[in-house]
Amino acid sequence: MRAPSTRAAPLRALLLRTRSVGTRSVLANRATTVSLVAILVLLVAALAAPVLTALAGTSPTAFDTGALDANLGGLPRGGFGGISSAHWLGVEPGSGRDLFARILYGTRVSLLIALAATAVSVVLGTVLGLVAGFFGGWADAVIGRVMDLLMSFPSLIFMIALMSVAPAANRELLLVAVLGFFGWPYAGRIVRGQAMSLSRREFVEAARALGANRRTLLFGEVLPNLAGPVLVVATLSIPACVATEAGLSFLGVGVRPPTPSWGQLIAQAVPWYAADPLYFLLPGALLFGTVLAFNVLGDAVRDALDPRGGGR
Amino acid sequence: MIWYTLRRLGVAALLLLVICALTFVIFYVMPDDPAQQACGKACGPERIAQIRDTLGLDRPLYHQFGSYLVGVFAGRTYGTGALSVHCGFPCLGFSFQTNEPVWRLLVTRLPVSVSIAIGAAVLWLVVGVTAGVISALRRGSLWDRAAMAAALGGISLPIYLTALLFQYVLVIKLGWLPHPHAVSLFVDPLAWVQSMIMPWTTLALLYAGLYARLARGEMVESLGRDFVRTARAKGLPERTVVLRHALRPAMTPVVTVFGMDLGALLGGALITESVYGLPGVGKLASDAINSADQPVILGVTLFAAGFIVLANVAVDLVYALLDPRVRHAT
Amino acid sequence: MSLLEVSELSVVFGNGVRAVDRLSFDLDRGSTLCVVGESGSGKSVTSLAILGLLPGAEVSGRITFDGVNLVAARPAELRALRGERIAIVFQDALSALNPYYQVGFQIAEAYRAHRRVPMAQARRVAVRMLERVGIPDPERRAREYPHQFSGGMRQRVMIAMALCLEPELLIADEPTTALDVTVQAQILGLLDELRRETGTSVLFVTHDMGVVAGLADEVLVMRGGRAVERGPVDRVFAEPAEPYTRALLACVPRIDRPVPDRLATVPPMEATR
Amino acid sequence: MTVLLEARDLVMEFPVRHALTRRVVGRVAAVNGVSLRIRSGETLGLVGESGCGKSTTGRLLTRLLTPTSGSVHFAGRDLATLSERALRPVRRELQIIFQDPFSSLNPRKTVRQILSAPYRYQRVAEREPVERQLARVGLLPEHADRYPHEFSGGQAQRIGIARALALRPRLVVCDEPVSALDVSVQAQILNLLKDLQEELALSYLFVAHDLGAVRQLCDRIAVMYLGTVVETADRDTLFAGPAHPYTKALLAAVPIPDPARERARPRVPLTGDLPSPLDPPTGCPFNTRCPKAADRCRVERPVLRAHATGHDVACHYPEETTR
Amino acid sequence: MASRTRTASLGASLILGLIAVAGCGGAHGGAADSQAAGTHRGGTLHVLSTIDLEHLDPARAYVTSTQDVVRLVYRTLTTYAAAPGRAGSSIVPDLATDTGTPSDGAKTWTFHLKEGLKYEDGRAITAADIRYGVERTFAPELPEGPPYARTWLAGGASYQGPYKGGDLAAIATPDDRTIVFTLNRPVADFGSAAALPMFAPVPKDKDTGVGYDSRPFSSGPYKIDTFEPKKQLTLVRNESWDQKTDDVRKALPDRIEIDLNLDGSVVDQRMIAAQGEDANAVAFEPIGPASVAQVQTDPTLRARLITGESENTRFLSLNTRRGQLGNVKVRQAIAYAIDKDALRLTRGGPIAGDLATTILPPSVAGHVDGDPYPSKDGKGDPDKARQLLAEAGVAGGIDLTLDAPATNGGKAQAEAIQSSLAKVGIRVAVNEVSGSSYWSTVGNTAQEHDMVIDGWTPDWPGASTYLPIVLDGRAITKQGNNNRAQYDSSAVNSRFDQIAALPDANAANAAYGQLDGQIMADAPVVPFLWDKAAILVGPNVVGAYGHVGYVGRLDLVSLGLRG
């Protein structure tokens, strides 16, 4: 670690900093398997959303006021949020849109944004962290300061404010950019540390002594050794992005209607939480389950790759 | 050490300045014309021009930013003549919405945020660290597995979901707690606790999970250190070995991370305060964002960044005090 | 009766590795036994096994110290022995000393673990011990932290800590391996001097035949967890009975003999077990 | 013999940073005016204790570090001032072997990739198949597709040696190549280095702290203390009659596997600690620990000068050569 | 910055996305009809508000919610009658002895003040204070108020307010209790306009400029004890106020605490539970859709639900100057296609009001029943719409952009419109605009898109501040535009002039009703809801009724607590 000032920062850093706690033995491989299967099922469901909703005969945007009781303020008819053969998970109060379809499409949007944002932050973080850690000196000073700066931002406030003034067009892309931009220092810091220690290893000197140029040293010698940490950062960054995207959409600055996303579904359900609890419980449980599954998976990846085998 | 402190504070100030500039540019340039927003609906073009003049919006951006900075350190006077208003140090401007000085808004909202942050911090520190340390000592036991599974669950639970669940179950369904509202500890301690218990628990669920994992990891590593073996070889009682030799090094990173988390929370627990409707700094931020109240957004961002940056400095100093290797380093 | 008798000692780690395999030896009061071997020979594991400092490993056989079987001893019995009657000096003094506490405190703490005395008195013992191991300005240095000491000085602190209760047995686990030769000579000289003064028995673990030659009364050569050869130092060096011992002596380039064209090498270990 | 490499007045200063503030609080000269000469076909030993600057010197000679001042003449050029690009062809003739065999091999690459890399980096055709390279250092063809962690320390060091030799260098800097190895393996590697030197007509700079290994391999020896060379001589002269008090003490400190001699030998050849390189003593760097230090030693820094033919010493009061 | 922001209360209400358009109003005559219930004095009344109060300063208060509250604090020349139903829309004297005396063809208006009027510090209220209050509305620093003084008073165009320009000659105060306004045109309604907050007295020595906003000086029964914006306003009795001079206000509670910026569902749940202090509370805003079911199925709760009529019509403005919307058939197709029932459902169903078929709501005098674009249960007639689109030559569908406020309610309405228009092949992109800047954005002709979620409440009862403001083509301005349809029909424009010249108010109202139908045939706007407000009151509260002048909110001046 460089100066003490570079020691970690809030939430996500903590997550990433947390040493392997040995969940491989703690939660056993079964939990990892279940998580992996759950994530795969979710991914397939998200990809197949148009097919699945066609099978269910619903669409995420079509109103069905017939499923609602107008005199009760637009509450779904029948109990349990209007679950019926036509609407497998019930309908949205006030509009009668099919919840199954909306949740499926929401999954698509949420996962797409999280994965893309993770890709952006991991690629940015890896490249910049690599450069900072490997070259040190001037490059490290600049990149390190930028990382310090970004991590000193009250990022949630800032992201919300930024999203709220940003133009309406292409919210998904914007979310990816904002999440990626504020996320990369966390990946960057880890990669930087690893790159720094790797660059002091003698095999790098050996390659230099053999006449390798800087690009080869960076990408041919050091980068392959970062695959482990980068993979860990990526798996742990996905749930963080899922949760943050949901948080932003929950606060009303995420994706715009009628595009559904988990956070937005939960936000719309907030006024109804007393009258129609299933409306927020369903997307909420899915969000929780997904974040949990990715976290379990992230722990497993970290344990598998941690050379220290912290969990032994 | 004094030099170091001063230098860190200097860097912190510089950092805040950059944050301030970035925020200023983004929020004063991107949205619609502030004059138009300030004018309201019955507003003609000539009136907008007048407002632009009063707000100084015609002047170049660096000039506006300069006036803002001067205001922060020395206060400033808005407008001219009979209607001029003086805004004393530290002047963060006036809310577009309520016309109150932003600084006063922040200061009046701070107690709520502090109540939430401190209470939650005590809760998660006690629960999380205790659970993590016990897990490390009983590695692989049923306790360890249960605690770590719970910790992972806590980390994965989004705050607004926890908050909604608590409200639904504890307030609506069971009626055990009232809807949270802002009460001062000094006015009605019982109501204060009743109002705060849900926000505390909501935040603590997340952070306790993080801290349990952190504490366990650090403790496991610490227990494996050579000097712990030395302590055992001296014939020290196991309790002394654990508490004196293993726990102290394990807690150093916990303390530093804690400082930064607390700093971030003091700047407003945005989601928690919004969901529970508690008028803290975080709620102020979300309200200001909803109403595009630029001076307040800028003020809150700076205020919160100030806490984070100062927490960083404090943590570095505490770290130096905790670790003699750093303290005596040359 | 010997002070320490080890018989049929085996240590198996959780991952199935048999680090020590049916090892037997004994150590008389007042004498020095050098355990010598290459890495993986089980020499350090043996020393840790004597103190019961191998958590998670399966230790079998007998380790009899002054009539008490340490393998079967209760934790409290073992703790009473550690530091008080059996002390240890580790190889890497930097990591073996707690960076968070003053060295004086760490010595005093060892003293107070077995003597009910006030802290101030234990501190005085610590200062006296530091002086005795040759640390200049001991009063001041007792208040310093391990990282403020040089490698040799740190190892002196470890020795002071180990000897503050005048143990009957001192285990020295490669105490000079990390040190430069001139510092090694200082530390070996110090150990020898203290041993003569206190009459402490020493179990000295090392890989360096030269060190063994200067220090040992008896030698135990280990390889792959087993004893290869045991005997008085003069006999073992003069007439090594085992090919491995002979090879180990021959493969080291020496500065006191003509330079050979090629160095002798050690034959590979037969795949036994 | 022709001079292959000549270093003159090498100085390497590192900034010293405060651990907390990262401010540069001083400069430490790890190498402070070292001049060396390596003749073609010979092995020059560079010995000294930790922190004396011997490894730094090795890296300066290979231009893995750029000296603060001084020159390194090799193959008719001054390496100290060449650009990385201009250095590349020079590197074919000047290689280095490292101390830690595992750290010096990229864990993500197979032996085959490691051994063919030199040709790739130099953009030259593969001169020698990997199997041949392996055979030369005593490894088997089937080792080619394994990863470094599948080898023992000795085997890994053999791979490191094979890599250094891939481009057929004329000079190889061996930076403590056997320090991390068990004694039995040390012997094998020392033998291998000797064999290769004969086979490929190599010159070595052998950096080590183990006097036994140095004596085994080297023709000439330079002794370093606190960043400077205090004595150079050919092997037999040095071991038989060291002229510098430090060399003498160093030789006296080496334990010899002979109980009778060891017991008779006076212990504790040197008192005191190595001075901090941050705050080196004035005058002779060794004066704080030297048994014969006089007033002159505390003021005037001795320069390396001829004590006898081919025997240079930096001491005001050198030992009489007893041979 | 020495400034503030917009007027409408949009930003605040996350739940309802209120399209509350400022309003105030009055018609001549009609005396305050005192309520029978609740004569017990004392107690603390709690008001739970999900929104904030925007600008307590009388020069700047232009939002119905604020006007409802400030009526407790300061008095105006005239005011609404404190009465339920349409009686509430009559204008009665307040500070003045009558509703004003016109002369010079209604170009000069004279008011006389009652005797014994006092401020909170006991000093007398003078005509000069009222003049000063009106003059303040000219100051550019206090921009949010209604435009009437600026547009009507002679010489107002160049007057810069009392801070820079001295006194305005158009207002004369021959003595302390007489004030005379000289107008630049005949205004028959001036007596009604005098009920606006800008006609409240402001003592010059108490004026703190923009700072006056946080604590206006009291002339009414309550004075401000504490005010924390977005948090709480606490009112306590003004002992200097004399009940005998005031026929409108009852001033029953000793203390009124208004909690601001609460969460909508929390307010609903607290009002339903009505525990402890909440028994003495009233909600400030209508209940949310999510609470309707609970209230409707519980008779005791239904008994505590007060429904008030409003004069607000919600409509969709179709920007007639953009693309295909210039084609009347396309507009008519949209009018047919809109599912008004679905739109109403997003606001809670029938409890939120009646489906609108004309621009002028039934509560406004002059309203004429009619439904030019009928459909079964108001769910829209897609077939008819498609037919019209085909006739317009755009059977393949068109793309339109809808401006909607970025509130939950605004988004829900936008989605409902999107969904109904999708059925006829009109693809709608939604442009969300931050709630607080919504009106200034859609009021900027450069920023307005094809369609706007819109609505209007008259500034005082009657059609005269309704149709001419929303649909007169000559009133289109680049900024601050109220004619979001940008509808400019010369026939309609000249008809506005003719009606304005009518001497008889009833005849004028009837004519506006006819004109409403004529405009509807052109479909520049699609009305979909005539608002009602359903508000919960605590079991201990008496005297609650919805006031038409405050879009159906409770008339705060009449509330009291059981003893």
Automatic annotation (TrEMBL), chain A:
GO terms of biological process kind: transmembrane transport
UniProt membrane topology term: Multi-pass membrane protein
Cellular localisation: Cell membrane
Chief localisation class: membrane
GO cellular component, one term: plasma membrane
Ranges of residues in domain ABC transmembrane type-1: 107-298
Pfam families in the cross-refs: BPD_transp_1
Similarity field: Belongs to the binding-protein-dependent transport system permease family.
PANTHER family xref list: D,D-DIPEPTIDE TRANSPORT SYSTEM PERMEASE PROTEIN DDPC-RELATED, OLIGOPEPTIDE TRANSPORT SYSTEM PERMEASE PROTEIN APPC
UniProt protein name: ABC transporter permease
Species name: Solihabitans fulvus
From TrEMBL, chain B:
TM helices/strands, residue ranges: 12-30, 112-137, 149-170, 190-212, 254-276, 296-322
Cellular component GO terms, alphabetical: plasma membrane
InterPro entries, sorted: BPD_transp_1_N (IPR045621), MetI-like (IPR000515), MetI-like_sf (IPR035906)
Chain ranges of the ABC transmembrane type-1 domain: 110-319
Highest rank taxon of the organism: Bacteria
Cellular localisation: Cell membrane
Annotated membrane topology: Multi-pass membrane protein
Record-linked CDD domains: TM_PBP2
Keywords from the UniProt entry: Cell membrane, Membrane, Transmembrane, Transmembrane helix, Transport
GO biological process, one term: transmembrane transport
Stated family: Belongs to the binding-protein-dependent transport system permease family.
Name used for this protein in its record: ABC transporter permease
Automatic annotation (TrEMBL), chain C:
GO CC list: plasma membrane
GO BP terms: peptide transport
GO molecular function, one term: ATP hydrolysis activity
Keywords for this protein: ATP-binding, Cell membrane, Membrane, Nucleotide-binding, Transport
Domain ABC transporter: 4-249
Location in the cell: Cell membrane
Superkingdom assignment: Bacteria
Mode of membrane association: Peripheral membrane protein
InterPro entries listed in its UniProt record: AAA+_ATPase, ABC_Ni/Peptide_Import, ABC_transporter-like_ATP-bd, ABC_transporter-like_CS, Oligopep_ABC_C, P-loop_NTPase
Family, similarity comment: Belongs to the ABC transporter superfamily.
Protein name, UniProt field: ABC transporter ATP-binding protein
Organism: Solihabitans fulvus
